[in-house]
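Changelog-linked ticket: fe (ii) ion example.
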Amino acid sequence: MIQIHKFENQTNPFINGIQDIFKTKYNFNDNLENLHEILETPLISQEDKEYHKQLHGWKNDRNSIFIKHFHHYVDTEPNFNEIYHQFIKTHIFPLFPNETKLVIQKTPNIRFSFPETAAIGCDPNDPENIIGLHSDSNFGHNENEMNFIIPITKMFSTNSIYYEPTIGSQIEPRDFENLKLETDEFLQAYFNKLRHCNHINKTNKTRISFDIRIIPYSKYMENLDFFNGTKFELGKYYMVIT
Ligand SMILES: [Fe+2]
C-alpha cells in the first residue's frame, strides 16, 4: 500500500525551517541537497566528520550532529510544531475521513542521507549492498500505524528508500522499488509490514526527509493493551491531534 500525495495549493511547509537551521548554525545558504559540503569545512569537528563517513548500526545511527541541531530547533522554535500540526490537519486528516482524532508521532524523525553513507543503520543480517532491511513491525511498532515520508530535498535513486511493493512478496531487496519524490509530494506507505531499506548514497546529493507514523485514534483505543506501559503509549512517542 503505497500512495504519493501532493501538497495541493501550497509549497512544502517544512523546507524553510530546515534551511534556517543551517543558515543560523553554519551560514549555509546553498541548496540543502549540497549540505554535505559543510562536512568538508572547519565548522564541523573532526569527530563529527568521522562519524558521517561511516555506516552505523541501529543503536547509534541517530547520533549525527545534524539530527541534534534539528531537535534543538524543535525544542526552541514553537513555530515548528505549529507548522507540523497544521500539516496534519490540512493534508493527513482528509486521508482518514472516519476519524475525528489522530494519534501522531510527537516529533518527526529526520533523516540525512549524505553521499557515500546511508540515512539509517545497518542490520547484521543485511544482504550485500543493502542497508537496514526491515519492516517497522520488526521494531515493535503497532500494525495499525501508517507511515508518511516528507522530502525536504528531492528523493531519488540511491539517496532514497527502496521498498517491496506488496506485503509478503518474495522479491529480493536488490529488486525493490525505488522511491522517487519531488519536494511538493509526500508518501503514504504501510511500512509496518512492507520491507524497506537504503543503499549507499551514490548520487552526490544529500537527501533530507521526515518520517512520521500515524494511527487512527479509534484503532489506538482498540489496542490500548498493546500500547500501555510501552515507549509507544500516548504522551511518550505519540500525541493526539484533533
Ligand atoms: Fe522503517
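Closing comment: Example verified and attached. The first helix runs from residue 15 to 26. Helices lie at 15-26, 46-53, 65-76, 78-92, 217-222, 224-227.
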